[in-house]
Amino acid sequence: MNDIRKQRRSRERFVWIGITTALVGLLFIVLLPTDVFAQAGAQNQRAESERALEMFSQVFRFVQDNYVDEVEAEELIQGALDGLFKSLGDPHSKYLSAEEMRGLSDTTSGQFGGVGMYISKQPDTGNGTPAYVEVVSPIEGTPAYFAGVQSGDLIVRIEGESTAPLSIDEVLNRLRGRPGSEVNITLRRGRAHEFDVDLVRDVIQVPTVRREMIDDDIGFMRIIQFTPYTDDRVREAIEDFAESGYSSLIIDLRRNPGGLLAGVVDTADLFLDGGLVVGTRGRSPRENEEFRASSGTAISDNIPIVVLIDGGSASAAEILAGALKDRDRAFLIGETTYGKGSVQQVRRIGDGGFRLTMSRYYTPSGTYIDKAGISPDKVVREDQLSDEELDALATLRNQRRIAQFVEQNPSPSSAAIDSFLQQLEQDGLQLRESVVRRMIRDEVNRMDGVTQVYDLEYDTALQEAVRMLRGNEIVTP
Prior knowledge:
Blueprint: H1 2-11, E1 15-16, H2 35-66, H3 73-86, E2 94-96, H4 98-109, E3 111-114, E4 117-121, E5 133-138, H5 143-146, E6 154-158, E7 161-162, H6 168-175, E8 182-189, E9 193-200, E10 202-205, E11 209-214, E12 218-223, H7 230-243, E13 248-252, H8 261-268, E14 276-282, E15 289-292, E16 305-309, H9 316-326, E17 331-334, E18 342-349, E19 352-362, E20 378-379, H10 387-399, H11 401-408, H12 414-426, H13 433-448, H14 460-470
Parallel strand pairs: 12-13, 13-16, 16-17, 17-20
Antiparallel strand pairs: 1-18, 2-19, 3-10, 4-5, 5-6, 6-7, 6-8, 8-9, 11-12, 14-15, 14-19, 18-19
């Protein structure tokens, strides 16, 4: 199986299927001509393309020779290429400058100076609703994560500038910068709750897997993103769990924005004994591919698996969840996934390049999940705050009440927390006790630089997974 994965990696094109820059705008194209009509159509299309290119060439030469100010040919060409991709109406297909190509490479394989969150943006629908930028997920252990940024938050302003008219790459460029520098963002949570967050940029190292045993019987792994090394980290986790004598496994894919296609296929290969993992279909027949698991697995068939998913589980995370669900290898708990169902290829042109949506993927059952997502076998939703609680939360943030309390009580006692809760109630701030206690714990962890691998105290989906596994409610194949 290792040799097969190496061969797959060696021939793998640079195919990025995560959501780091934009929400997919999938273009469905169905061609149903006879051979005669197809040939005639192809000839007409070539003729039209030649006429269009000749017209462009004439305009290009005239502008270069006659514009009032001298202009570089490269500048004109880059502008034209940028317009070409914008005309597709697909924010995930884009001409990339040399700087943007470097940034994309950093995001998928290395480290970069930024605030640590994956974002997306829907195209402007023209209905008057601003097309703000949405947070798909914060990256664990980064400034955005420790500041409490959540999946689903809208970034409405950066340094006071609205994000509505900005492209996704313009937003990324404003968020990135020199480590140690500060950037102010305005978030909208819920229907109307807005608040400012000051983030200090840091060197962002893109993680992949975290793992830990829950007591002595359940292995827990959180797959944060799919990279070329994810399957190796997952294999190591499985081996460690086996040495610890685990009897069941939980895979947490929540807030996982995706990653590389090869990374998720190789990871699924560890759990599936042959058969289809995922397929892709595009307009071009060469984009129609099937990615299959090799024979053998890294995990015993008698180990039941639960996969946790939510609205921040996107793309490659949906591929793994869909494959394990369709192949009856895992039970899914949580909320319906994001529904990102397209594959982009990145091609270089000189120092720059472009990314283009080339195909869409389907699960082993033949299900296309674009804009629909993968539904869980059992729905467990996170508690939602009421409008009154959101208002109280805004007051706590603006007044730094939680931060000040933890600064005065680095290791707060139960008595100190009870007194703090009473004071909030006297001040008319109506928040559930569990919400405040969780905020205090998270602030203590933030100040100590601690990130929890799992949270059995407040994570209701995880609690349900543990309950079902220990109650032998999950049937193995």
